[in-house]
Design brief:
alpha+beta; minor pseudopilin epsh fold; 5-stranded antiparallel beta sheet; 4-stranded antiparallel beta sheet; 9 strands
Length: 158
């Protein structure tokens, strides 16, 4: 009767794995990890883009809510160079990373001065029609503001 080496080791009271078995397991794990890395490459930039999209979309929503609540017109502004955004609803300016391209379109965005694009939210909740495209490489986020309702929608494009 033939017995395996594992059975023989267990019969002698030896438990565990040999060094060779551990090295083979580590080599297979390292190979699988190396094959998976390109798939997840650029994830930091993707996270940065998605985070900015969520922040800007939240800024539009918060400003609309503030206009409804206070019954006073509120504005969201984006610098012409696309590096900053802020609103009447919140005091702080937020930075847009250099690697993210910003494109602003829509009749609702007015140029309030030579350095700023501004979207107004009226006390009834409506706003001007606006669209903001954030792009980094092949990844994009499109934020659309409806003129009738002031509702903000976001679409993620790969």
């Amino acid at each position: 009767m033939t017995t395996s080496r594992i059975t023989e080791r267990r019969a002698r009271g030896e438990n565990g794995f040999t060094l060779l078995e551990l090295l083979i397991t580590l080599a297979v794990f390292a190979g699988v990890t190396l094959m998976a890395l390109p798939r997840f490459g650029g994830s930091k930039s993707r996270i940065s883009l998605h985070s900015l999209g969520i922040q800007l979309g939240s800024e539009f929503r918060a400003t609309r809510s503030a206009a409804l609540w206070s019954n006073v017109e509120k504005r969201v502004s984006i610098s012409r160079d696309g590096r900053w955004f802020w609103s009447d609803a919140r005091a702080n300016r937020r930075h847009i990373p250099e690697e993210i391209e910003v494109r602003i379109s829509g009749a609702g965005f007015a140029t309030s001065d030579e350095h700023t694009h501004t979207l107004r939210f009226l006390p009834d909740g409506s706003s001007g029609l606006g669209r903001v495209l954030l792009r980094e490489g092949k990844q994009s986020v499109v934020i659309t503001i409806d003129s009738t309702t002031g509702a903000t929608e976001m679409a993620w494009i790969n």
